[in-house]
Design brief:
This protein is mainly beta. It is built from 3 helices and 24 strands. The protein has helices at about 5-10, 25-40, 100-105, and strands at about 50-55, 60-65, 75-80, 85-90, 95, 110-115, 120-125, 130-135, 135, 140-145, 145-150, 155-160, 170, 180, 180-185, 200-205, 215-220, 225-235, 240-245, 250-255, 260-265, 270-275, 280-285, 295-300.
Length: about 300
């Protein structure tokens, strides 16, 4: 039996018919919008005609189309955050129904876990609907409360569980093959550069993807530990930093190339955006002064 079919069959709740896994971000958005429409109208078999409508000025991606019910075809509009493809708006015939999506979003029941998959791939769910593959955001399609598909790097990762949350399984399905991942619950193994020991500090040099002005990483820090991210930048450029803990609290500080403070220690909830005045390696140090290991995402941008 096909791996994805086997995992979907293991999910106990009824769901809309499972479409083929999206092979690109646009396909994923079309599937998610269609699924939200079917769930809203409780019409699991209703056909839809969804179309990609492009990106807005704020870079949110938009999808719209009809769902065909008995004698009528309401128009559905969906909007997704850039990169993570997380649905943030849901309209039915011009009426804002986004609260329905946030209250019943399929990913809201996706548990926290870490899965070690074939070919060295790691899948991490933070338990809040966010899934990362090798430290980068994956798109997630929820077919029902027990079956999801994460998609990243040309690979589909089917995720299934029983109605009571037991029996969690994660599959690995690249084109032309497939297998299963080794799963541990809790989501504590966020992919990143590895962790320093308790009370220690390590250093990571940040490299942006080719042609990009920014990047996003996932990491974790034990109690009392810190990590120093090194970014090469020039006088007059603008630096953006955002540190987002998945659990607990963190702080960070920024050093100029001459080791003076560009920014004194501040809570992670405060973003930084400012102009630089020195050439060379700037250091963003993330600090965990709490008594627990904290997993987090960190976003850097230089323009």
């Amino acid at each position: 039996m096909h791996l994805r079919t086997a995992l979907a069959a293991a999910a106990l709740a009824l769901a809309a018919p499972l479409p083929a896994a999206a092979q690109n971000p646009v396909g994923t958005m079309l599937d998610q919008c269609a699924n939200a429409a079917r769930n809203f109208f409780n019409a699991n078999t209703a056909p839809t005609d969804m179309r990609y409508n492009g990106a807005r000025v704020d870079r949110t991606e938009t999808v719209g189309g009809e769902i065909f019910l008995n004698g009528r075809a309401p128009y559905i509009a969906c909007a997704f955050t850039p990169g993570s493809l997380r649905m943030v708006e849901f309209f039915v015939d011009g009426q804002d129904q986004s609260s329905f999506v946030s209250a019943s979003a399929g990913t809201s029941l996706l548990p926290a876990f870490t899965a070690e998959c074939p070919q060295g791939n790691q899948v991490v769910s933070d338990g809040r609907g966010n899934v990362r593959v090798n430290g980068r955001s994956a798109s997630v399609t929820a077919f029902n409360r027990n079956y999801y598909e994460a998609y990243a790097g040309g690979v589909t990762y089917p995720i299934s569980q029983n109605d009571d949350g037991s029996g969690l399984q994660v599959g690995y399905e690249p084109p032309g093959g497939g297998g299963f991942c080794q799963v541990s619950t809790g989501g504590s193994g966020a992919a990143g550069s590895g962790s320093p020991g308790m009370g220690q500090t390590d250093t990571v040099r940040v490299q942006f993807p080719s042609g990009s002005t920014g990047t996003e990483l996932s990491d974790n820090l034990p109690p009392g530990a810190s990590r120093r991210y090194v970014l090469g930048a020039g006088d007059g450029q603008f630096l953006y930093v955002r540190v987002a803990p998945w659990n607990g609290s963190l702080e960070y500080q920024i050093f100029n190339p001459d080791n003076t403070f560009l920014l004194d220690l501040i809570p992670a909830r405060q973003e930084y955006r400012g102009q630089l005045w020195q050439d060379g390696d700037h250091v963003v140090e993330v600090v965990n002064r709490s008594g627990q290991t904290v997993s987090y995402n960190v976003i850097f941008g230089i323009e």
